[in-house]
Amino acid sequence: MMPQSLGVIGGKPNSAHYFIGYVGEELIYLDPHTTQPAVEPGDSGCLPDETFHCQHPPCRMSIAELDPSIAVGFFCNTEADFNDWCQQIKKVCVYR
């Protein structure tokens, strides 16, 4: 795993999930389809912290079921982080 990885967004046709890890041949995912009202900047009202947590436990899906259309997220906090990420990507890329 790359420390810069934020996860993968994808799933099956008509279904999207946020993949956060894997165990063997299974992907661990969260269902991002929980909504709540937006928080306005400077809003003095306090929202309970639990409203930002998952409503359901993580689920699993066979990697064989994953649709090939995915989005991969990375975050590099510093230039050194980015350089490290570049080196890691070079190790896993296959040049033809």
UniProtKB/TrEMBL annotation:
InterPro entries assigned: Papain-like_cys_pep_sf, Peptidase_C54, Peptidase_C54_cat
Keywords: Autophagy, Cytoplasm, Cytoplasmic vesicle, Endoplasmic reticulum, Hydrolase, Mitochondrion, Protease, Protein transport, Thiol protease, Transport
GO biological process, one term: autophagosome assembly
SUPFAM superfamilies xrefs: Cysteine proteinases
Pfam family, one: Peptidase_C54
Record bears the keyword Mitochondrion: yes
Known EC number: 3.4.22.-
Listed GO MF terms: cysteine-type endopeptidase activity; protein-phosphatidylethanolamide deconjugating activity
Role played: Cysteine protease that plays a key role in autophagy by mediating both proteolytic activation and delipidation of ATG8 family proteins.
Descriptive protein name: Cysteine protease
Organism lineage: Eukaryota, Metazoa, Chordata, Craniata, Vertebrata
